[in-house]
Design a protein that fits this description.
Bound molecules: pyridoxal-5'-phosphate
Shape: globular
Number of strands: 17
Largest sheet: 9 strands, mixed
Distance between the termini: 23 Å
Amino acid sequence: MQTTEFIWFDGKLVPWNEAQVHVLTHALHYGSAVFEGIRAYARTGGGSAVFRLKDHVQRLLNSAKIIGITIPYTLDVLSEAILQTLKANKMPDAYIRPLSFVGYGEMGVYPGANPVQTIIAAWPWGAYLGPEALERGIRVKTSSFARSHVNTSMSKAKAAGNYINSILAKIEARDDGYDEAVMLDTNGFVSEATGENIFIVRDGILKTTPWTSILGGITRDSVLKLACDLGYTVLEQQFTRDEFYIADEAFFTGTAAEITPIRELDHRQIGAGQAGPITKHLQKEFFKIVQGENSHYADWLTPYTL
Ligand SMILES: *Cc1c(COP(=O)(O)O)cnc(C)c1O
């Protein structure tokens, strides 16, 4: 991966190679960590902006609350630290990764008095599913691994431990020659992908999984609002795998994946087997927003200059 100069580590900017922890760090053994994925984009006409910064930081705090750990920083301190990290690394655009984890101390499962530590790293990250994915769309398969039951792992927490489920599905999908996995919930309904939410389009109407077994994506939320503003009907409604097969269009949303079209599921071509017109429309408007070309959504951008 491409490294940068500094990582924010509990209030200090430390050189990339020196941002280290002990091998007996609690989170390394038990997954007791929460994280965020945030993007900053260069603005058309100069400067840069972080997309939905406060919403991401609030979700980090919420994730910690859900898994029962306390991050000793406020929303404002963490937001400022993110901007500081971008400026220190002179990054006009970036993928930003805040992570709060239970640190070194007692080795039992009970996190007890172990410190909760926080880092913020940033690095350049292009299209998550490959440079062609945003244009051509990707091939996906239904995973043999179900998304965890809503009372097994807390899906609304972006928690490290939850990611074993995603890793299992991702490895299976990649080993079988697909780009990504579609995961069903324990009732058999389409849930989400390994790190992306799912939308399908049929007869001009968009449908996305309700906020039950999924991580409430900020990109999902942005697309819901954008699609409504553009006059589309969007339903937050459960749907099945076979409804997905006969969709006219489908796409993933996520900070890393942005809006990635899906051209095939389980060897069934979706629609015309390429990015559909509504997907492309939303993609185009989404990129305008993040690059500061649509003042209607100025609230979603936290500007900064280097
Ligand atoms: C992060 C994540 C998403 C996408 O959320 P965004 O806020 O849009 O980045 C979707 N599903 C899972 C499991 C995730 O961890």
